[in-house]
């Protein structure tokens, strides 16, 4: 059976034009997808049943047993951490937030190690963003700063920017200028009209130099800023100021580099300066397919987008204190529920060591690095393959991911609702 | 040799990210991408093993020559090998220094550990898929 307009639940682009063929509860072909989509749909390999650590080995357990044990672990904990959430749908994220409130825990999502600093900057100076549709149809200048879309978001350029013809852009490849700023050459920088090769840690200075030029203070600029020549900075500033509509996209090259959220603040303020001359927008290149959704869901329930601590009985947010890496580094949490992410692979080693010391339960379809650290893993259906649910694209547009077939796995929401019900019942009695 | 470790996403890492027990994922995640002149100075070739040390840990990886990296910088895709070296300090932002870890490189004949072995070193119990 061929299914059209399938949503790809891999990266923040949430491409919704895939054609997927399904036979006997298995995807057998994918059209329109990038390499990442093809791998996700075609080579789906799951953990078969819940597993529990048993001494120096593992044993299979039932779903009921795994759910009961997870509820007990959370009830026993004084400082539980509920981490992950970017790889599941909004309905499951919502149950997660209510569970965190019920047990007085901390709930954090993967933005803590991707665009958390972007959110901190947006909280300081706002977000002059727009939808990807606006970019596709109007933008004649595109800036990728600290981002490598060809590797991380392979269809971003073909669906929305460099290669995408739009309503006011008849020949995108000819009519759009592309500027890439990065500390290293990448596939993306190779196709740029201008490549700003920035010295490591020099993003803030380069952004400041561009702001000064756009503000008319170009005479202050020395011959070279962060490895970029004065001439190139002036050339790039002119391209941006002459744009009819410009769009800046930034990646982890800004959020993880020295300066962190101040880099993003500076990029947003450059966007503000450019709006004195023309229309310019700025948006983060969100990585996980529903990391934006986790920020949305957490915010509409608690008022905060990530790193929310319910220990005081109210929602408290303080990045650096209530963020997962800091909590794990301090050895503060005494239990962890990991949902739809892999901190074992993506957190510094010291955090992985603490996860191995405490009861860690992972709800995830796949065997990953965290599996080896966990005490219990519960496999679930994959949203967009055998589960459905709401996701938010990187520009904040909600898109419904469909189920391609009905499989044998429960979904995240069902598992979390059962854990929630058990915890609530235990608290009541 | 002292260099700066940068980490980030690659399309191969993304392709295999949901199959972390695969040889493909290990091959990508344990590759130490280097400038050719740095490799020449260290007397290593593509595929040779290198012990990478930081103030926070050490791990053996496989050298891989790439274009586009300046001397003194190495690149490893985000994952358990890179994170064996990255420190947990976030400077009050929640975000560790994933892009700027000082490391030292030394050729070795020791084997590259599997992800399971890396997690066992962290105190975990390996699960055979």
Helix content of chain B: 10-25%
Count, helices of chain B: 4
Separation of termini of chain A?
A: 50 Å
Question: Using DSSP, what is the number of strands of chain A?
Answer: 21
Q: What structural class do the secondary elements of chain B suggest?
A: alpha/beta
Could you explain how this protein is built, in words?
The complex is a heterodimer of chains A (429) and B (129). Chain A is of the alpha/beta class and 429 residues long. Chain A has 2 domains: 47-114 and 289-428, Rossmann fold; 116-284, Dimethylsulfoxide Reductase, domain 2 (3-Layer(aba) Sandwich), CATH 3.40.228.10. Chain A is built from 19 helices and 21 strands. In chain A, helix 3 (90-103) packs parallel to helix 19 and helix 10 crosses helix 11 (230-242). Chain B is an alpha/beta fold. Helices cover 21% and strands 29% of the residues of chain B. Chain B is built from 4 helices and 6 strands.
Quick tags:
heterodimer, A: 429 residues, alpha/beta, Rossmann fold, Dimethylsulfoxide Reductase, domain 2, five-stranded parallel beta sheet, 19 helices, 21 strands, 38% helix, B: 129 residues, Barwin-like endoglucanases, six-stranded mixed beta sheet, globular
Short description:
Chain A is of the alpha/beta class and 429 residues long. Chain A has helices spanning 35-42, 63-76, 90-103, 116-125, 132-138, 149-152, 156-159, 172-175, 187-190, 203-214, 230-242, 252-255, 261-274, 291-302, 324-329, 343-346, 349-357, 369-373, 412-428, and strands spanning 2-6, 18-23, 26-31, 51-54, 57-60, 80-84, 106-109, 141-145, 177-182, 194-197, 224-225, 228-229, 245-250, 279-284, 308-309, 316-317, 335-339, 360-363, 376-378, 389-392, 398-401. A nine-stranded mixed beta sheet of chain A has the order 5-4-19-18-17-6-7-15-16. In chain A, strands 10-9-8-13-14 form a five-stranded parallel beta sheet.
């Amino acid at each position: 059976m061929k299914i059209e307009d399938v949503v790809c639940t891999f990266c923040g682009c949430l491409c919704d034009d895939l054609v997927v063929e399904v036979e006997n509860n298995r995807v057998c072909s994918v059209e329109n997808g990038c390499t990442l989509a093809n791998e996700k749909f075609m080579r789906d390999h799951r953990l078969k049943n819940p597993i529990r650590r048993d001494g120096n080995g593992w044993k299979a357990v039932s779903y009921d047993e795994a759910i009961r044990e997870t509820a007990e672990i959370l009830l026993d904990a004084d400082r539980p951490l509920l981490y992950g959430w970017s790889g599941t749908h909004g309905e499951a994220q919502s149950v997660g937030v209510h569970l965190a409130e019920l047990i007085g825990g901390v709930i954090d999502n993967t933005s803590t190690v991707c665009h958390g600093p972007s959110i901190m900057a947006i909280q300081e100076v706002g977000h002059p963003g727009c939808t990807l549709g606006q970019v596709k149809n109007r933008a004649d200048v595109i800036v990728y700063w600290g981002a490598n879309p060809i590797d991380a978001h392979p269809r971003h350029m073909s669906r929305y920017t460099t290669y995408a013809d739009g309503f006011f852009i008849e020949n995108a490849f000819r009519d759009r200028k592309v500027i890439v700023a990065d500390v290293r050459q990448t596939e993306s920088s190779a196709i740029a009209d201008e490549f700003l090769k920035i010295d490591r840690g020099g993003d803030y200075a380069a952004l400041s130099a561009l702001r000064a030029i756009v503000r008319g203070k170009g005479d202050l600029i020395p011959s070279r800023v962060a490895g970029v020549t004065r001439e190139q900075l002036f050339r790039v500033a002119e391209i941006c100021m002459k744009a009819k509509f410009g769009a800046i996209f930034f990646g982890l090259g800004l959020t993880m580099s020295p300066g962190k959220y101040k880099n993003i603040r500076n990029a947003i303020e450059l966007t503000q300066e450019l709006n004195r001359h023309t229309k310019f927008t700025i948006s983060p290149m969100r990585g996980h397919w529903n990391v934006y959704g986790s920020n949305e869901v957490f915010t509409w329930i608690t008022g905060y987008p990530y790193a929310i601590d319910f220990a005081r009985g109210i929602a408290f947010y303080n990045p650096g204190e209530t963020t997962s890496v800091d909590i794990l580094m301090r050895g503060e949490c005494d239990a962890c529920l990991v949902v739809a992410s892999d901190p074992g692979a993506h957190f510094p080693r010291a955090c992985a060591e603490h996860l191995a010391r405490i009861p860690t339960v992972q709800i995830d379809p796949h065997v990953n690095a965290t599996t080896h650290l966990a005490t219990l893993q519960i496999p679930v259906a994959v949203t967009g393959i055998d589960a459905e649910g709401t996701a938010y694209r990187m520009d904040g547009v909600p898109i419904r991911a469909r189920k391609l077939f009905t499989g044998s796995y429960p979904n995240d929401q069902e598992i979390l609702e059962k854990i929630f019900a058990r915890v609530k019942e235990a608290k009541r009695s | 040799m002292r260099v700066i470790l940068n980490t980030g996403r690659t399309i191969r890492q993304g392709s295999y990210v949901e199959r972390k027990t695969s040889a493909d994922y290990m091959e990508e995640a344990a590759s130490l991408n280097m400038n050719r002149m740095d490799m020449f100075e260290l007397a290593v070739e593509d595929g040779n093993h290198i012990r990478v040390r930081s103030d926070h840990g050490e791990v053996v990886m496989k050298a891989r020559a790439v274009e586009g990296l300046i001397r003194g910088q190495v690149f490893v895709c985000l994952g358990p090998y890179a994170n064996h070296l990255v420190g947990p300090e976030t400077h009050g932002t929640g975000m560790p220094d994933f892009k700027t870890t000082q490391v030292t490189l030394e050729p070795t004949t020791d084997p590259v550990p599997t992800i399971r072995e890396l997690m066992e070193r962290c105190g975990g119990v390996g699960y055979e898929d």
